[in-house]
Design goal:
The complex is a heterodimer of chains A (about 375) and B (about 260).
Chain A (H helix, E strand, L loop, with lengths): L9 E7 L3 E10 L9 H10 L5 E12 L1 H17 L2 E2 L6 H10 L17 H34 L7 H11 L4 H23 L8 H39 L2 H7 L4 H39 L4 H11 L2 H27 L5 H32 L3
Parallel strand pairs in A: 2-3, 3-4
Antiparallel strand pairs in A: 1-2
Chain B lengths: L7 E12 L2 E12 L3 E6 L5 H9 L6 E6 L2 E2 L5 H8 L2 E4 L11 H12 L4 H14 L15 H12 L6 E5 L7 H18 L2 E5 L3 H7 L2 E6 L4 E5 L2 H7 L3 H7 L16
Parallel strand pairs in B: 3-8, 3-9, 6-7, 7-8
Antiparallel strand pairs in B: 1-2, 1-4, 4-5, 9-10
The chains are: A alpha/beta (about 375), B alpha/beta (about 260).
Chain lengths: ~375, ~260
């Protein structure tokens, strides 16, 4: 469609006595590269000065035109309007005239324009304080809603579907076995190597088994599983609930009087709280096997020695502590994921942000609460 | 390869569309004249939008081809296909605005990517396009902050950004009030007349169909192919296919043009 040798769009402005301006448009204005500058027209208008004038167009040299021309003429029109100059559009091509009147048909939404005022720092600090307080309240409220929903579930009155809960359980439990196994095998292996470095100089390599056993069962098993599930399942919860929010699916539930917390959040919470202990048992077993593998293949230990020491090292107390922490981490991950998902804004970017915040909050809360558990256990000599 | 008929800009030849092994439509043949408004109509779920996606090149036909000026869209190499697509403007069903960008940024993106215009010129064109769809003053709003109808109009402004030769509309008036819908129809005709664009419109709004269509095809969901083609006003008068007549008369049997919607 383009001409063989496209000519550049051109503009020239002439004064026409007594007070008129003639804007001559020429060349190919369909091209989307460089539009002529407004300066010529502007200078000419300023030359006319305060004397009210007229602006006319000569479009006889125009080869082709597109939006660029309409945008240009529209700016001329705006200039004329500001300075009270009469705008003669009769000489413009008909299509340009029509588009111009279409563009001017709806007045600008003046009050729609936003004010980009800078906030003073005190107001900023205060605003952040209020936001933080509101966020803290929202967190506690969400916790309360969950507690109420759980209460209703226990009394058999919640809008809760077990099949949904089972589906989530399958997604966050059995389907996570592969990644949980891989990570925990490697962690067990690493623990064994680290133990060997520390204990071998004292001729105490045999205690590598104790170290792997205690480290895994009390700490690493549940910690690593929690972090994996936070990245895997917590993020999925936030993204799914966030997308449901964007699609107004949550509003649709509310419109039917169905509580999103009972219907969506509770199954997810239940699933993770119930699945995490099981995953932790699995993770512990795999990590112990990782340590076993390193010890008997590279650290000159016999299998019997290793197994005996491991069995002696693991107490029921440590085992239950690890499992209990695992369940708590499951709650933390589900809580962070669901809270951020339900708080999600109304667009794609907000879903991304909700997911990020869910994972960051989840991992931080896991590590921080694990630290608190460690202090408590030390104080109680557990 | 020169087009046989320069007046034909799009030609659909023996097109079969399928999702996996499920055939949506088969043996579709149609021609779109340059500078005309071509309407794809049919009941909900009959494959109108799927046909549109095939025409834009978002989906690859199972059999048959879509030709632009005599060149098959899928016969071209990737670069040529990208260049061809740049001549398209597409308005998706609910606007499909990029939610992390303001309306102005949405319209400016294609201009910034595909033209050598300066920032200032892009700003001018963006303001013009938004003014054309009645959104002057909303440049700095994010899609989430405006209504669905406004999103759709902003989507149209974005589709028009590059002065496309061919504009595709997927259900332009769905979800709009009658007046906005009518204004949009007028805008569509205005674009055809003033910029000489070819328009392909997927719709099942009868008022729109009779108002804007130069030519149309009716997709028959049962026969899985074109049920009728031609100007919808002629189809209403002369078509003997009961399905086409029922569609064009909102299920009624009178031979008159549909009036204001009656309670059903």
């Amino acid at each position: 469609m383009a001409p063989q040798a496209p000519s550049l769009p051109g503009v020239s402005v002439q004064r026409r006595p007594p007070d008129g301006l003639l804007v001559t448009l020429s060349g190919n204005w369909r091209r989307m590269d460089r539009l002529p500058e407004m300066r010529g027209v502007q200078e000419a208008i300023e030359g006319v000065g305060a004397v009210a004038g007229r602006m006319a167009f000569d479009a006889s040299g125009l080869e082709a035109w597109g939006s660029g021309l309409v945008a240009y003429v529209s700016k001329c029109h705006e200039l004329c309007r500001q300075r009270g100059i009469e705008f003669e559009e009769s000489s413009l091509p008909e299509g340009v005239r029509r588009l111009l009147s279409l563009a001017n048909a709806v007045p600008a939404q003046q009050d729609a324009r936003r004010v980009g005022a800078r906030t003073p720092w005190l107001e900023y600090v205060g605003g952040r304080g209020i936001q933080t307080w509101a966020a803290a309240k929202a967190m506690v409220t969400f916790l309360g809603e969950n507690a109420v929903a759980l209460g209703k579930l226990l009394r058999g009155r919640a809008q809760f579907r077990w099949p949904d809960a089972f589906l989530v359980m399958q997604q966050c439990g059995p389907q996570a076995l592969g990644i949980v196994a891989l990570i925990n095998f490697l962690v067990g292996l690493i623990l064994a190597f680290v133990g060997a470095v520390g204990l071998r100089p004292f001729g105490a390599s045999i205690f590598v088994a104790d170290m792997v056993a205690i480290g895994t069962v009390r700490e690493m098993g549940c910690l690593m599983t929690g972090i994996i599930l936070c990245g895997r399942t917590g993020a999925a919860f936030a993204a799914q609930l966030g997308t449901m929010k964007v699609n107004q699916e949550i509003s649709a539930l509310q419109a039917f009087g169905i509580s999103p917390v009972e219907f969506l959040v509770l199954p997810r919470m239940m699933a993770l709280v119930l699945m995490m202990p099981l995953l932790c048992v699995f993770a512990n077993a795999i990590a112990l096997f990782g340590g076993f593998f390193v010890s008997i293949t590279m650290l000159d230990m016999t299998a019997t020695e290793y197994v005996t020491r491991t069995v002696e090292a693991i107490t029921l107390k440590s085992f239950l502590l690890g499992i209990g922490k695992g369940s708590f981490f499951g709650f933390v991950v589900a809580y962070a994921g669901c809270l951020r998902g339900m708080q999600c804004g109304n667009n794609a970017a907000a879903v991304g942000e909700a997911t990020t915040r869910a994972v960051v909050a989840g991992i931080t809360a896991i590590i921080a609460s694990d630290g608190v558990f460690a202090v408590i256990c030390n104080a109680l000599k557990l | 390869m020169k087009p046989a008929d320069a007046a034909i800009t799009i030609e659909i030849r023996d097109l079969t569309m399928a999702y996996g092994s499920y055939v949506v439509m088969k043996e579709i043949n149609a021609q779109v004249k340059r500078g005309s408004v071509f309407v794809i109509m049919g009941g909900s779920g009959c494959g109108k939008s799927t046909l549109l996606r095939h025409m834009i090149g978002l989906m690859r036909p199972v059999r048959g081809e879509v030709l632009y000026d005599g060149q098959s869209l899928w016969g071209m190499d990737d670069d040529a296909r990208q260049r061809q697509r740049r001549k398209f403007g597409v308005l998706f069903q609910s606007g499909a605005l990029w939610s992390s960008m303001t309306l102005a940024e949405n319209v400016a993106l294609p201009l910034g990517e595909y033209t050598d215009l300066s920032e200032g010129d892009i700003g001018d064109i963006v303001r013009l396009k938004l003014a054309l769809v009645g959104l002057r003053g909303f440049e700095d709003f994010y899609p989430a902050e405006i209504s669905g109808g406004m999103c759709k109009r902003a989507g149209l402004a974005r589709a028009m950004a590059l002065d496309p030769e061919i504009l595709f509309f997927d259900e332009p008036s769905a979800g709009l009030d009658p007046i906005s819908s009518r204004n949009l129809d007028h805008l569509i005709l205005e674009l055809r007349d003033s910029l000489g664009a070819t328009l392909v419109v997927v719709t099942h709004e009868l008022a729109s169909i009779f108002e804007i269509a130069d030519d149309s095809i009716f997709l028959d969901a049962d026969a899985k192919t074109i049920g009728a083609s031609g100007n919808p006003r002629d189809l209403l008068k002369h078509s003997t296919d009961p399905k086409v007549r029922a569609f064009l008369m909102r299920g009624g049997t009178s031979g008159t043009m549909p009036g204001p919607p009656a309670a059903s």
